[in-house]
């Protein structure tokens, strides 16, 4: 069985791109689904309105509050556990118009659990309008509601595009790939472009596909891109998802052993 390897291609404050090798499609898709549906975060789950004179109904404001990403202190909670901690954070607001109410106006009972972005607009209050409520945030998973998804993830096959130097204007493809930041290997007969990101051939080269231009899928290798909404550091999202996968696999194996006994 090949050894699983990770290679980070690009790391930004809110995203990471990496290659995972030595795995198959079911594992790659399991990792994607676990990131989206199993990694827990805090989100508003219930709102108690005390006063609302704004132009929006309570339900609309409650929905907006639920979709505000809340910072989730991963060092304080066992986010890779299969059972979630029963912990509630209160986010309160007392505002009066005129003016816009932003996510940064929410007062949290836990300084570690607060909006990841303080500039998200909630509602605009006119002169004399008031808005007072208590919002209760809890840990949850994306499989129960999208408000608990920690971010976005997608993957593609890692491929190599072989371009023969017999193809007219092959230099144009080399220049285009280098501008895209793609690795290009060159020999006497061909150039090989490694598609660590999407690469589309100009229409003028389509007639050479399958002849002077062929695409090779690198077996067992996938390029992942993970983006965070701000609740968790992006590298923690991947780490927690892998731990959850291992815990679920262990539980499944234990259940099989019980059946065998």
UniProtKB/TrEMBL annotation:
<dbReference type="InterPro" id="IPR001514">
    <property type="entry name" value="DNA-dir_RNA_pol_30-40kDasu_CS"/>
</dbReference>
<dbReference type="GO" id="GO:0046983">
    <property type="term" value="F:protein dimerization activity"/>
</dbReference>
<dbReference type="Pfam" id="PF01193">
    <property type="entry name" value="RNA_pol_L"/>
</dbReference>
<protein>
    <recommendedName>
        <fullName>DNA-directed RNA polymerase subunit Rpo3</fullName>
        <ecNumber>2.7.7.6</ecNumber>
    </recommendedName>
</protein>
<dbReference type="GO" id="GO:0003677">
    <property type="term" value="F:DNA binding"/>
</dbReference>
<comment type="subunit">
    <text>Part of the RNA polymerase complex.</text>
</comment>
<feature type="domain" description="DNA-directed RNA polymerase RpoA/D/Rpb3-type">
    <location>
        <begin position="15"/>
        <end position="255"/>
    </location>
</feature>
<dbReference type="Pfam" id="PF01000">
    <property type="entry name" value="RNA_pol_A_bac"/>
</dbReference>
<dbReference type="GO" id="GO:0000428">
    <property type="term" value="C:DNA-directed RNA polymerase complex"/>
</dbReference>
<comment type="similarity">
    <text>Belongs to the archaeal Rpo3/eukaryotic RPB3 RNA polymerase subunit family.</text>
</comment>
<dbReference type="InterPro" id="IPR036643">
    <property type="entry name" value="RNApol_insert_sf"/>
</dbReference>
<dbReference type="InterPro" id="IPR011262">
    <property type="entry name" value="DNA-dir_RNA_pol_insert"/>
</dbReference>
<dbReference type="GO" id="GO:0003899">
    <property type="term" value="F:DNA-directed RNA polymerase activity"/>
</dbReference>
<comment type="function">
    <text>DNA-dependent RNA polymerase (RNAP) catalyzes the transcription of DNA into RNA using the four ribonucleoside triphosphates as substrates.</text>
</comment>
<keyword id="KW-0240">DNA-directed RNA polymerase</keyword>
<dbReference type="InterPro" id="IPR011263">
    <property type="entry name" value="DNA-dir_RNA_pol_RpoA/D/Rpb3"/>
</dbReference>
<keyword id="KW-0808">Transferase</keyword>
<keyword id="KW-0548">Nucleotidyltransferase</keyword>
<dbReference type="InterPro" id="IPR022842">
    <property type="entry name" value="RNAP_Rpo3/Rpb3/RPAC1"/>
</dbReference>
<dbReference type="GO" id="GO:0006351">
    <property type="term" value="P:DNA-templated transcription"/>
</dbReference>
<dbReference type="InterPro" id="IPR050518">
    <property type="entry name" value="Rpo3/RPB3_RNA_Pol_subunit"/>
</dbReference>
<dbReference type="InterPro" id="IPR036603">
    <property type="entry name" value="RBP11-like"/>
</dbReference>
<keyword id="KW-0804">Transcription</keyword>
<keyword id="KW-0963">Cytoplasm</keyword>
<dbReference type="GO" id="GO:0005737">
    <property type="term" value="C:cytoplasm"/>
</dbReference>
